[in-house]
């Protein structure tokens, strides 16, 4: 007793395999993905410790960033929200002291949800009362970044150097 496979059965099985592959490839290609690049930590230059990073949408679908949460050594930490950035003082010839903001050092924080278009990025700069050890950045979005979660965590070190 042999198994007989007709040509139309073979073609329909091949079409089914191609359709399954197409669905899998489309789901994989259109999956939302974010990443952080250019993380820098400055612990001494300003009044407060500062972190800079760029959040990238490396997928081809728009993603809305709802919130960014920070954890240091497994504890939630809040950035300094009312800080307007570092200032430097200049004394004039008549002993008049004038304060000026440090260029490119103002805070850039997420205060409301923002949508990142496909393959775009946004820069952030946060100031904290204190930073040391491990820093975890948790980004909350409107889309599932993994099977069960709309959050993605990134872990960085904020080692002090003398």
What's the CATH C level? Mainly Beta
Question: Would you count the extended β strands for me?
Answer: 10
What do we call the CATH topology? Immunoglobulin-like
CATH architectural label: Sandwich
Ends distance: 82 Å
Per DSSP, the total helix count is 1
Rounded to an integer in angstroms, the radius of gyration calculated over CA atoms is 25 Å
Q: Which word captures the global form? A: elongated
Which spans of ≥5 residues are poorly predicted at pLDDT below 50?
none
Percent of residues in β-strands: 35-45%
How many discrete structural domains? 1
Structure description:
By secondary structure, the protein is mostly beta strands. It is 14% helix and 41% strand. The chain is built from 1 helix and 10 strands, in the order H-E-E-E-E-E-E-E-E-E-E. The model has no long low-confidence stretch (mean pLDDT 86).
In short:
The protein has 162 residues and is mostly beta strands.
SSE arrangement:
Layout: H1 7-29, E1 34-42, E2 50-57, E3 63-72, E4 75-77, E5 87-91, E6 97-101, E7 114-116, E8 121-127, E9 133-141, E10 151-158
């Amino acid at each position: 007793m042999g198994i007989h496979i007709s040509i139309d059965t073979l073609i329909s099985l091949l079409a089914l395999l191609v359709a399954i592959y197409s669905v899998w490839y489309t789901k994989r290609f259109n999956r939302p993905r974010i990443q952080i690049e250019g993380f820098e930590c400055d612990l001494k230059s300003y009044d407060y410790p500062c972190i800079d990073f760029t959040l990238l949408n490396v997928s081809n679908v728009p993603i809305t960033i709802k919130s960014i949460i920070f954890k240091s050594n497994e504890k939630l930490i809040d950035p300094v929200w009312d800080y307007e950035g570092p200032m430097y003082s200049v004394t004039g010839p008549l002993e008049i002291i004038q304060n000026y903001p440090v260029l490119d050092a103002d805070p850039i924080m997420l205060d409301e949800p923002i949508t990142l278009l496909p393959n775009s990025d946004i820069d952030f700069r946060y100031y904290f009362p204190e930073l040391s050890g491990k820093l975890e950045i948790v980004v909350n979005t409107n889309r599932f970044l993994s099977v069960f979660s709309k959050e993605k965590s990134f872990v960085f070190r904020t080692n002090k150097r003398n």
